[in-house]
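Query structure, 316 tokens:
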């Protein structure tokens, strides 16, 4: 792509996240008439972008984490029941943290395949986080309850929450978020762990009231200064919402039409007005939470948000 097509630089800061959500097995892109070619990224683009940004992060001394926010399946021929073709391809991606969406949980056969000993969930060595999704047979978390992401200069406490889903298959239990935040393990994670920031992989709409509930519970234990990023999803839109001066909710589209990027400084900002995405650099400036959305190329950061189409079989 010619350099003249780039509208803004990546807003680097101390802690940086590359985000995909609601891919629905469109790993080879979503080449439909409703998309322009520029919106048809595939996992090759994601991997290439991550490799290049990782090189920049290393040179700057920043941390970069690649995250997947759920709804891996249901959409293409790659996603059969069970997703035996899709899973080995996903396992080649260098995700630092993942969570489940609702679509992984509709069929017991899918759940059992993903959760089998030595299977997909186990292959992530604790990085598949299901804070309120439990194995119905054992009562234990289907994945991990939480995970500490340790970078060069930062320690990010990561959770993975699903909305209050009720129509899941019976091999899992989805604890209501309202109940999960009152449980001892959640409070202990926030009070007994040493961390610099909190990440919530939350498979729910960017403006879901449960996001605000999770933030309130976090602030009660962690205080007002710690940065908190909510990676949201489920509603298939590109959207952003400030929650307070040190917290935000960011939803990065669907079907790989968007590769999200979010970053923040670990230094408390002198004021919200002092933040500047364009001037941000690792460890400098004390900027407030920063964000930019791109679909494989920076120029799409300025693209208008697409409204979600009517879902297929509740494809949300």
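Result returned for the query:
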């Amino acid at each position: 792509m010619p350099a003249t097509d780039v509208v803004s630089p990546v807003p680097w800061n101390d802690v940086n996240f590359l985000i995909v959500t609601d891919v629905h097995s469109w790993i080879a892109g979503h080449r439909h008439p409703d998309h322009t070619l520029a919106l048809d990224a595939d996992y090759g683009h994601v991997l290439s972008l991550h490799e290049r940004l990782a090189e920049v992060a290393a040179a700057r001394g920043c941390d970069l984490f690649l995250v997947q926010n759920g709804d891996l399946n249901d959409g293409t021929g790659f996603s059969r029941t069970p997703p035996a073709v899709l899973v080995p391809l996903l396992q080649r991606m260098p995700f630092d943290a993942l969570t489940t969406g609702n679509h992984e949980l509709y069929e017991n056969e899918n759940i059992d395949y993903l959760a089998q000993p030595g299977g997909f969930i186990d292959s992530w060595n604790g990085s598949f986080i299901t804070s309120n999704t439990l194995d119905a047979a054992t009562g234990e978390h289907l994945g991990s309850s939480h995970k500490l992401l340790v970078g060069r200069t930062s320690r990010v406490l990561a959770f993975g929450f699903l909305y209050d889903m009720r129509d899941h298959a019976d091999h899992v239990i989805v604890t209501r978020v309202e109940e999960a935040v009152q449980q001892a393990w959640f409070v202990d994670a926030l009070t007994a762990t040493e961390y610099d920031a909190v990440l919530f992989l939350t498979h729910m709409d960017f403006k879901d009231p449960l996001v605000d509930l999770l933030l309130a519970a976090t602030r009660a234990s962690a205080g007002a200064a710690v940065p908190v990023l909510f990676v949201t999803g489920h509603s298939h839109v590109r959207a952003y919402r400030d929650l307070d001066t040190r917290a935000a909710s960011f939803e990065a589209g669907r079907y790989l039409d968007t590769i999200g990027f979010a970053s923040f400084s670990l230094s408390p900002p002198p004021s919200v007005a002092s933040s500047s995405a364009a001037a941000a650099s690792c460890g400098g400036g004390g900027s407030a939470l920063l964000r930019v959305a791109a679909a494989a190329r920076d120029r799409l950061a300025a693209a208008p948000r697409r409204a979600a189409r009517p879902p297929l079989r509740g494809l949300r």
